[in-house]
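Subject: two folds for Thursday's group meeting

Dear M.,

Sorry for the delay on this. The cluster queue was jammed most of the week, so I only got both jobs back this morning. I'm pasting them in the order they finished. Each block is the input sequence followed by the predicted structure tokens. Could you check whether the formatting survives your parser before we put anything on slides? The first protein is the one we discussed after the seminar.
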Amino acid sequence: MRLIVVTGTGTGVGKTVTTAALAACTLRAGQRVAVVKPVQTGVLAGEPGDLAEVQRLTGLADLHEYVRYTEPLAPATAARRLGEPGPGLAELAARIAALADRDLVIVEGAGGALVRFNDRDEGLRELVAAVRRPDLEVRVVLVTGAALGVLHDTAATAAVLAARSLAPDALVVGDWPAEPGLAERCNLLDLPSYGGAPLQGVIPHGAGVLKPPDFAERAAGWLTPALGGSFDATEFVRAHAVPLPRKEIPR
């Protein structure tokens, strides 16, 4: 089994659409894939959560949500307001390990990478540590924004993840604007050095509202071959990034 952990620099950066794109590329390759949302918040019982969006976009039915809190808060905070300690990592890890017959398991975190799941200050980093075993290939996809301020967020998140032996393997811009400005175009060049990982995906704005056939058809064009797609990150950066201005030679 391979495990891809999808996390982000914060909430609303495009983790769920990125997860759906990864799943769509895996399905097109004829492989078995499961998507796990260990903790879902901000959704009432019976209402569609992030996994419902993955299912709508990809048609995938192998979806697993383990804990749900209705208030739109960090999981540990939502659990505390109910007088609960939050989910234990041993149980979450065991349920993920039970999916070992799939070719790929995608685990989508809640909010940013440092969000806590329970009152023991445990979150996605600790969950991955609990799931790790010698024969398990783990890759971490860090989803970022593109606008001004993202470089700091990306560097801070990547540094903390690396300190816990969970350094990002790939960066994905989760919501690339139709008309990028100067900051977005410059950030394309800078993101890899701040995040310590290569740019391996760019999801266009509006991807999440595409109809399922269109989403499945286009998803491969948003992710590099390392993530199952055909996206050429080098060419994208060459076409969209702002080159450095030429320095005038004093006379």
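Second protein, same layout:
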Amino acid sequence: MQNCGATIDAEGKLVPVTEDIRNGNGRAIKSKLWAANRVDKLDEPINTIVWLMKDHALPPVIKLEDPVLASVMGACLATKRTTAEKILKGVDRDALVFEPYANPFRTYALEQDYYKFKALFQERGVSCYIINTGHFLDRKIPKEVTIAIIEQIVDETAVFKPFGNLPGLKTMDIEGFVPKFKDKGYEELLTNGMENRINYLVSLKELKGGRDQLPREAFAALQKLLK
């Protein structure tokens, strides 16, 4: 953590204080501005981006090697609603939804994020992964598996192999979570997932007057997977 204070609670435990604190009349009790040597960024450039998803058709980890596909999969990020969002009455909070780049609070056109993420992958060589933190088929992916994947990516010891015959996608062999491409049911589930993403992109052409529609290349990247 950066720019954090600390205090000791009633049990004698050291607890981080992550926010500025003021008393009732607005006077500062604790502020990051008091530190002369504070920093607001890390000097190391970003080298990896991970889309955290919940998608029954995807194994615990997918490596995306095509910059366009990496960006469009972030734009079609499958997830569940959080308690931070205002949910209309009757809406199932546990239902899977597409939330572009996991940001429900965007106030600008979606293509701005799309092109910026694409530039990171294409121009700066940033790696991109999907990590499924939900279920693969009917089996829950435990946190221990997720943590092990992240450690191997960070340590650069992860071994990836082609994800079926899908171009630009690779995965890891993880016991109990190996996709069976010869299984017709799995093939249909995976196909439906990609078709749902394409349908979502189509819906953006009408939603909000088309403000958030993405370029043709985004559709083409997903359609290439279906073929």
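Two things I noticed about the second structure. Residues 49-226 form a domain with the Phosphoenolpyruvate Carboxykinase; domain 3 fold (CATH 3.90.228.20). The chain has two domains: 1-43, 49-226.

Cheers,
T.
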